[in-house]
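INFO  loader      accepted 1 record
INFO  loader      residues=243
INFO  predictor   begin
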Amino acid sequence: MDGRVAVVTGGGTGIGRAVAATLVARGDRVAILGRRPEVLEATAGELGCAWRQADVTVREQVRAAVDWVVAELGPGIDVLVNNAGGIGALDDAPLEEAERVWDEVVDGNLKSAFLMAWATLPHLRRPGGRIVNVSSVAAYSGRGGAYTAAKAGVAGLTYWLALDLGPEGVTVNAVAPGFIEDTGFFGGGLTPEGRQSRVGQIPAGRPGRPGEIAAAVAYLASPGAAYVNGEVHHVNGGWLFGR
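INFO  predictor   done
INFO  writer      dumping C-alpha cells
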C-alpha cells in the first residue's frame, strides 16, 4: 500500500481531515482539496500532505487541481475520496430562494463528486484504482431536504460508476455516515435537546467520530477491498439499516 497517490476533497476539517490523516499514516501520498486555503495549509502542515485550494463545483478548478496532483504526486492517481459537501435549509423559502439553496447543496454534494470522478478517470490506476464517495444516512432516512436528495444522488453515482469501471479493475463504493460529532456539520446550530434526540435513536448510545468514518473509507480504498464494488457502507451505530 505504500506510496499510493490519494486525493481527498473537503480535506481540511472533519471527516475529510480524518480520512487524510488515516491515509497518510498508511504511507499514502495525499493531496487535500478545499475552498479555504488557511485551513488547508494548517491541516497539511500537521499531517504532512499536499494541498491546493479548489472549489470542486467549478469545472475548470477541478481540472486544474487534478492536473496539479498528477504533476506533483503522480503520474497516476490511486484513490479519490469525494468528501466535499454541505447542507442548506429550504424550510418555507419562496421559490427563488429554494432554487438557490437547492442548486448550492446539490452542486456541493453531487456535482462535485461527479466532476472530480470524471476529471480523475484518465489518471486513475487500472487495475487497482479506488473511488470512495461520502453519502449520508439522510439519503435513506428521507430527512434533510435538498441534502437528502443530493446524498441519494451520490449513492446512484456510485452504482453507475461501479458498473462502468468494475471491468477495468477499479472499484467505486460509498460510505454513509450517521450522526458524527466534531465535524462542524451543524455549524453550532444543534441544540442539546437536538443532540440528545439523535443519540436516543442510536443503538450504540453515542454519536460517531470522524476517525470511525475514516477507517471505513480507508478499508474501501485499500487493495484488500478489491472484491467490494458498488456498495454503500453504512456507519451509523445501528441508527438505520442499509439496503
